[in-house]
Design goal:
- By secondary structure, the chain is α+β, with helices and mostly antiparallel strands.
- It folds into 3 domains: 86 residues, Orthogonal Bundle (Helix Hairpins), CATH 1.10.287.110; 127 residues, Sandwich (HSP40/DNAj peptide-binding domain); 92 residues, Urease metallochaperone UreE, N-terminal domain (HSP40/DNAj peptide-binding domain, Sandwich).
- It has 9 helices and 13 strands.
- The chain is flat and about 80 Å long.
């Protein structure tokens, strides 16, 4: 199995702060997002790699384990050990207690879900082997596990686990298949779900050791960052680049939304940073059918970087006319 250097993938030092790691992830996610690079067949694999690196380094528990593994790996190399002889078994996190009840969450979303966008198993074998038992955010290929026999109580206990979905999935709604032992449950995640939204399976938690009712299984939703939008409750905010001439003379700009792109009329004399409100183009309101938030499009005026001699002459004339 190949060791993955997640710090190198994100381009940060091993002492990087949580803020630096998050900033590097957002920058690289925007750069390699498949929607931004439709003609680059390698963008998808780079985006997966960046996502996996952040899944580890952005989680304190996973990062601690990864740093310990990294130190052990470096000592092995320094002593001349061959990579193929390294003992991975002590670091593998996917084993459950004997006879324990295993609970897995896998992707089973609609046509716009991560499973279809990136294909099955978005995490590498390295990630799945090392962190499979710690609970991957979106559980793409891994699983999270519980041992009900370690719960010394006569009452049933609830199970909670975080499940990551994309912003597109939160917009359209999606599903997850939950495997408990030999049985499977299908969880419907409603449109408009936010980070913190919970999906409940009644009676599917830890069993009671007496005659009490079993606990419940809760899937706690986490909506992943999207490089195109910033979400504030049910509203979305997006940067819309326009050139200098459109801002001065007026024209149109294309604005991405989660349903379809729209054309925004740019009035003559529009200013950099000016915001336009697109009603009903935000996120659906959870539990309220046919109600949506708004999308706020913020203009980013792009100045020309290189001028021809004629263009410079014309700008100088405009400067003189302006006094």
């Amino acid at each position: 199995m190949e060791y993955k250097d997640y710090y190198k993938i994100l381009g940060v030092s091993k002492g990087a702060s949580e803020k630096e790691i998050k900033s590097a992830f957002r920058k690289l996610a925007r750069k390699h997002h498949p929607d931004v690079n439709p003609d680059d067949p390698q963008a998808e694999s780079r985006f997966k790699e960046v996502n996996e690196a952040y899944e580890v380094l952005g989680d304190p528990e996973k990062r601690r384990k990864y740093d310990q593994l990294g130190a052990d790996w470096q000592r092995w190399q320094q002593t001349g050990g061959r990579p193929g002889d390294f003992d991975w078994s002590q670091w593998m996190g996917g084993a459950g207690a004997p006879g324990g009840q295993r609970v897995h969450v896998r992707y089973g979303g609609g046509a716009e879900g991560f499973e279809d966008l990136f294909g099955g198993g978005s995490f590498s074998d390295f990630f799945t082997s090392i962190f499979g038992g710690m609970g991957a955010g979106g559980q793409r290929g891994g699983g999270f596990e519980f041992d009900p026999w370690s719960q010394q109580t006569t009452a049933g206990r609830d199970i909670q686990h975080e499940v990551e979905i994309s912003l597109t999935e939160a917009y359209r709604g999606t599903t997850r298949t939950v495997k408990i032992g030999n049985s499977q449950l299908k969880a419907k995640i409603p449109a408009g779900a936010k980070t913190g939204t919970k999906v409940r399976f009644k009676g599917k938690g830890y069993s009671s050791m007496g005659r009490g009712q079993p606990g419940d299984l809760y899937l706690r939703i986490k909506v992943a960052p999207d490089p195109r939008f910033e979400r504030k409750n049910d509203d979305l905010h997006a940067a819309v680049p326009v050139d200098l001439y459109t801002a001065i003379l007026g024209g149109q700009a294309r604005v991405p939304t989660l349903s379809s792109d729209v054309k925004l009329k740019i009035p003559a004399g529009s200013q950099n940073g000016q915001t336009f409100r697109l009603r009903g183009k935000g996120m659906p309101r959870l539990g309220k059918s046919n109600q949506y938030g708004d999308l706020y499009a913020r203009l980013e005026v792009k100045l020309p970087e290189k001028l021809t001699p004629k263009q410079r002459e014309l700008f100088e004339q405009l400067q003189k006319l302006a006094g």
